[in-house]
Protein: Homoserine dehydrogenase
Amino acid sequence: MKEVRISLVGFGIVGHGVLEVVRRKRELLRNMGLDLKVVSVTDITGTLLDEKGIDPERLHGLKTLEGIANLGIIGKEAIRDVDSDLVVEVTPTNIVHGQPGLGHIEEALSLGKHVVTSNKGPLVVAFNHLQELAQDNGVMLKYEATVGGTMPLISLIEKNLVGNEVLSIRGIFNGTCNYILTRMMEEKYTYSYALTEAQELGIAEADPAYDVDGIDTAGKVVILANSVFGMDAKYSDVAVTGIRDITPEALNLAWERGYLIKLIGEVPALKVKPMLVPRRSPLAVGGTLNVASIETDLSGTITVTGLGAGSIETASAIVSDVVSIYTTRQIDD
Structure:
């Protein structure tokens, strides 16, 4: 049985999800020969350490670790001082400077700890640097949850499409935008009304700019450009147009002509903009779904879809990455 000691850095929605998925799947993972233990959880108030593994029930309903943390260390100090094999980094995303996640990931990789993250910011800002750091220290950096939530895009390309040349990827990479456009089309809502509904349902943030202005999708395009196509793309290289100016009239006109309007990200073209999608296209998914069509030289075009967000859903992609680190090659730590 391989014991894997995990430090969880970030205690938001995704952090809670990681704890719960590890709890739910403990026996299944043990049957695979893996004993995953989250031995520490860190947020901005401190660190909770339990060498035997943290029970998610202890943290149920808590928004911070204030009052329950037993170590007064945070950030990089917590990564240094806790004895762990792997760091799961799920702090909030900042695609301008990547912090604090960038510093956390650099610290973990430099210490010879594997990293799994859902945090797009560090990968948008410094993808190639982080990959080189992981390679130099003989560890792995996994990030499936940064580009498609539950949609298995990176792993599909790395594992199942090995030997194929990927020619292009285009798809819907933001569930919030897809939900708004779907409701505008189905219910003839205005953009502002559909956005308000999405906010009331918790699908859109109080400040929706990151999603509706295409920033989130552009970040994912950058990660795909660098990870799949070997580019050295930056956010500033992506031509971005969001969905704020789309009207019900435009959606209706598109429908009458056999199309839907969707916010599409394209790689390696480095474009994010509303585009016409044929109603019978595999990309014509509704609600909060994400979808990507991968064009290859040998296998043709393969389309994959899945939920783009959610606590348990995102955590499932993170735990899958953790498992892949210890099953795709022999780890002797």
Summary: Residues 120-136 form the longest helix (17 residues).
